[in-house]
Amino acid sequence: MLCAFLNLAQMPKDGVLWRGWLRFGGRHRIELSLHVLFVVTAVAVTYVLAAGFLPRVFPGWDPAVYWQVAVTVTLTDSLAGLLHELGHAAAALARGRQVYRITLYGLAAAGYRSGGPGRPRDRFAIALAGPISHLLVASALLCTWTLLPPGNQPLRVATGLPALSNLAVGLLNLVPIAPLDGSRVARALIDAVLRV
């Protein structure tokens, strides 16, 4: 269940445009926030896709179709970003951690949960949950793409581009370089092997 309030007339100093709450697992309530950078990034990505990338790569479509595909790609990738953070949240909650808030900023997001070192296997699972969510989204979109009619190029592009971007983000996030999730996965594995 999602409850929300919107206050555009007076944006808080923290830059959050929207706050809502998500009931997770019946007992847990997580605050969801959209930062102003999320809106700016979504508009910019949609514009770049609709006015630049798509017309150059796929010439001949009706102009409105470029915008429809661009909005679909942007919304799909934004939802995938939220699912990434919800993956971390679900893994954290399953391991007894508390999750307080998820804030979406443009191309990034941040989850705020109870700290503490925790067991390496818990840290491993929590860190891995985000990239796995992207890989699952990519798999679902790719499976859907294979079922679409070959003659409907805009629909295939609206499904295929997010499939590729989610595959790329999921794999990139596994690279063991901070601040990527892969660095947290690697640290948890090292701690487990060294029993630190």
- The N- and C-terminal alpha carbons lie at a distance of 40 Å
> What percent of residues are in strands?
15-25%
**Domain unit count:** 1
Let me know the number of strands. 5
Give structural notes.
The chain has 196 residues and is of the alpha+beta class. The protein has one domain (2-194). Helix content is 59%, strand content 18%. It has helices at 36-57, 63-94, 120-147, 153-172, 181-194; strands spanning 2-6, 16-24, 28-35, 99-105, 108-113. Strands 1-2-3-4-5 form a 5-stranded mixed beta sheet. A hairpin with a 2-residue loop joins strand 4 (99-105) and strand 5 (108-113). The radius of gyration is 19 Å and the shape is globular. The chain starts with a strand and ends with a helix.
Labels describing this entry:
196 residues; disordered N terminus; 5 strands
Write the layout of secondary structure elements.
Layout: E1 2-6, E2 16-24, E3 28-35, H1 36-57, H2 63-94, E4 99-105, E5 108-113, H3 120-147, H4 153-172, H5 181-194
Parallel strand pairs: 3-4
Antiparallel strand pairs: 1-2, 2-3, 4-5
Helix pairs in contact: 1-2, 2-3, 2-4, 3-4, 3-5
Summarize this structure briefly:
59% of the residues lie in helices and 18% in strands. It is an alpha+beta fold and 196 residues long. A five-stranded mixed sheet has the order 1-2-3-4-5.
